[in-house]
Amino acid sequence: PPHRPAGVPEGAPFVLALGRLHTNKAFDVLIRAMRFLPGVWLVICGEGPERTALETLAKQEGVAERVLMPGWSIQPGGLIKACSVLVCPSRHEPLGNVVIEGFSANKPVVAAASQGPTELIRSGENGLLAPKEDAQALAHHIGTVLEDPNLAARLAAAGRADYTHTFAPAPVLAAWQTFLSTVEHA
Known about the structure:
This protein is an alpha/beta fold.
């Protein structure tokens, strides 16, 4: 079931980011983006070496009261279901598992155009891609999704369809069986 994090006011939109608090994940860019998103809350689930720097940055940017870093969530599924937008701001993200999590939960995804997300997201169709390192563009995309429920629903539905056709257990197993049968007969 959807699970709103403690500290986010009822009815307030919140964006969710997941991952190790590491420079590769570019949570600093996302925190800077929050300046352009008044009334929006940010929840970053994760732990890592950048925690203190990120907390300091949130204070410097004047957004600390709207940025929550509860550590690793044992069950991020409920948070993903409750969030307004799932964000993957990474500078370096070879796979984009967070994007797939968002697709599977039927949530709109906004990501920086790093390797993994660009392979998964067709911008404007099943998610939105912002240039890496660009807090203002990231904020613009997040704001666009939050202000346009039809767009949010359309992106989420397309992402969910991609998940069902490509990443759900049945298609993955079918793809493996096809691959294994070609290897066996090679």
